[in-house]
Amino acid sequence: MPQIHDEPVTSLSDHRKPGNHDADTAASTSSSNPTARRLLQIYLADHEAASRAGLNLVHRVRSENEAAAYGDYLVKLEAEVEQDRASLINIMKALQVSANPVKQLVARAAVIVGRLKPNGQLHGYSPLSRVLELEALCAAALAKRGLWQSLRVLAPIYPELEVATLDRLIDRATEQFENLTDQHRQAAREAFDG
């Protein structure tokens, strides 16, 4: 079973150390294709905005399910998602990529619109809401794993990225997806097997 870390994964290789000429050459090579660099910046900004929305969603799901059987797992997941977001921000800083405020605003609006969906009840939290929100968190865990896998592929090109760090993040996202899938199955049984 993969280890879960209590703090964000921040271990990035420092290619700016004096005397690290191989890393300096790799760093200049990594930015030699401006189109690829621009696409990477867009990709990371998209994931940063999505991570903000995902964190807002996990806060909501946890707060609505604290007393339910899901509560303990969701508290743990919330802490991990916060750590994952911090790891992404650290990686973006190391790669000198900024967040996109417009994308952050769109992600925030998406969370608000998601709360307006009909859930079969006029008031309160519905079992249908739990099913749909856990499905969204499953999708978010898969997307996050895809992000870490994409960065893992780029690690030989960008010396700021450390393979061991990305491998740990991939393992954690995989474990999150598996656990969320179990939680989703339980929620579906409760909602639809009435």
Can you describe this structure?
This protein is an all-alpha fold. It is built from six helices and no strands. The chain has a single domain (32-192), classed as Ferritin. The longest helix has 31 residues, at 34-64. Residues 1-7 and 10-29 have low confidence and may be disordered. The chain has helices at residues 21-30, 34-64, 71-94, 101-115, 127-154, 163-192. The relative contact order is 0.17.
Compute the number of strand runs. Answer: 0
Apparent shape:
elongated
Helix-strand string: HHHHHH
Number of domains: 1
Low-confidence blocks of residues? 1-7, 10-29
CATH superfamily: Ferritin, core subunit, four-helix bundle
CATH fold type: Ferritin
Helical stretch count?
6
> In angstroms, what separates the terminal alpha carbons?
34 Å
* Cα Rg: 19 Å
Give the amount of beta strand, in percent.
under 5%
Q: Class by helix and strand content?
A: mainly alpha
CATH architecture, by name, is Up-down Bundle
Largest sheet geometry: none
Percent of residues in helices comes to: over 70%
Mean pLDDT: 81
Under CATH at level 1, the class stands as Mainly Alpha
Topology:
Elements: H1 21-30, H2 34-64, H3 71-94, H4 101-115, H5 127-154, H6 163-192
Brief sketch in words of this structure:
The chain is mainly alpha-helical. It is built from 6 helices and no strands.
Name some characteristics of this structure.
Ferritin; 194 residues; mainly alpha; 6 helices; elongated; single chain
